[in-house]
Design a protein that fits this description.
This protein has one helix at residues 19-24; strands spanning 3-6, 14-17, 33-38, 41-46, 50-54, 65-68, 71-76, 79-82, 91-101, 105-111, 116-122, 125-135. With 136 residues, the chain is mainly beta.
């Protein structure tokens, strides 16, 4: 019997699949992924990924969806498409999971020997979204 696992395994009779093959179920399969830009940051996403992005516009209705039109790169079985700066006609659709807040950032300023101390804090509002589809 041949056992198929993901990762490193040195037991006899065990076939180790690459991380792409473990995602697709067969060797040589490359799952589709895209690089999107949102809020001045770039994210590498695949279908089913859950990511936190800065607040963007959300469509009304159920389920609440977010569309990312700034797709910088798309990769899959058909090859890699790189935009200059974006891939024309490509978009990534996601469903809102929930609204979250980032951890608090502490700002503390002090000038020694002057009696000056100033403290502040900030928490960024984020959207947690699940990637539903990559449209090319």
């Amino acid at each position: 019997m041949i056992e198929v696992v993901r990762g490193v395994d040195r037991r006899p009779g065990v076939v180790v699949l690459s991380r792409f093959a473990a995602a697709c179920g067969v060797e040589g399969c490359v799952p589709m992924y895209a690089v999107i830009e949102s809020g001045g940051k770039q994210y590498r996403v695949a279908e089913g990924d859950v990511i936190d992005v800065e607040l963007t516009s959300i469509t009304d209705g159920e389920p609440r969806t977010v569309n990312f039109d700034r797709v910088l790169m798309v990769s899959g079985d058909t090859g890699v498409k790189v935009g200059s700066p974006v891939v024309s006609g490509a978009s990534v659709s996601a469903v809102l999971v929930r609204e979250v807040r980032a951890p608090k950032i502490r700002i503390f300023k002090k000038k020694r020997r002057k009696g000056y101390k100033k403290s502040a804090g900030h928490r960024q509002d984020l959207l947690r979204v699940r990637i539903e589809a990559i449209n090319v």
